[in-house]
Amino acid sequence: MNAIEIRDLEKHYPGFTLDRVNLTLPSGCILGLVGENGAGKSTTIRLILNMMKNDGGSIRVLGAEQDENFSKVKEQIGVVLDDMGFPSCMTARQIGKMMKQLYRNWDEAMYQKTLKWLAVPMDKSFEKYSRGMKMKQSIAVALSHHPKLLILDEATSGLDPVVRDSFVDAVMDFTRDEECSVLISSHIVSDLERMCDYIAFMHEGKLLLCEEKDVLMERYGVIHVTNEQMEELDPEAILGKRISPYGVEAVADRTKIPEGFSVNPVSLEELFVFMVKGEK
Ligand SMILES: Nc1ncnc2c1ncn2[C@@H]1O[C@H](COP(=O)(O)OP(=O)(O)OP(=O)(O)O)[C@@H](O)[C@H]1O
């Protein structure tokens, strides 16, 4: 089964169009969304969560269409968004009590354990939290009602490097159960490179690609060539290039590069930047 299936999804805002996005997240996998500011990641995530209406296309989440029964599905989704809407006067202890009423699967022991792991104080009010603490509070709630799907919008960006590292491990642990899946957007592409099975690149409301990470890493690489060598290469082989006085650095499709060229591994971050920014 697929945890998320998006077909031809559209959303129109003045000056922005989410343009017929197709995306599939297979169960048991982690899909990372990469895109520049304003690319449409949060819009896609909010549409998946049925927080607003789409203008076209369809979304299935955990096998269900977004009809009136979606509230049952929502109970199986652990969500971390920028603004979770926790009442500002509440403490972690009080938020836990509130969540117990909302989620049938609420696991108070897991909540306490996660708060402890993330060093979130039990009795400080939410309005006095630092940005990272707010993120950690959301993560603790998201992990404590035994969801089948985690949807994490920029969940790692406010975390310090040590916590981020163990959070990435926790997300990977979560998908050890084949029924549990994760959709995560992040500007910290190295985190996604570590944890994701699938990567989707979004740019200006369009999906540039959605592919298995290992396939991407195997297929594309970085070459350093002279201007003359570049002229001889198949333009289709070049995703993006950067010209300097010392020659040309380019991200290339290994399958379209003749033998004899040295092709070095590419990072996901380089791949995205070259695709979006590199002069074609
Ligand atoms: N409620 C809204 N009304 C009008 N335009 C909106 C609304 N919400 C989002 N947009 C626009 O939609 C576009 C996509 O925004 P979105 O928040 O999805 O981007 P994003 O990829 O998540 O960016 P970031 O990385 O900065 O969080 C932007 O141009 C934004 O201004």
TrEMBL record:
InterPro entries noted in UniProt: AAA+_ATPase, ABC_transporter-like_ATP-bd, ABC_Transporter_VariousFunc, P-loop_NTPase
SMART domains xref list: AAA
Highest taxon, organism lineage: Bacteria
Domain ABC transporter per the UniProt entry, residue ranges: 1-229
Signal peptide from the UniProt entry: none
Keyword terms, alphabetized: ATP-binding, Nucleotide-binding, Transport
Gene Ontology molecular function, alphabetical: ATP binding; ATP hydrolysis activity
Pfam families registered for this protein in UniProt: ABC_tran (PF00005)
Keyword ATP-binding in record: yes
PANTHER family the record matches: ABC TRANSPORTER ATP-BINDING COMPONENT (PTHR42939:SF3), ABC TRANSPORTER ATP-BINDING PROTEIN ALBC-RELATED (PTHR42939)
Record-given protein name: ABC transporter ATP-binding protein
Species in which this protein is naturally found: Hominifimenecus microfluidus
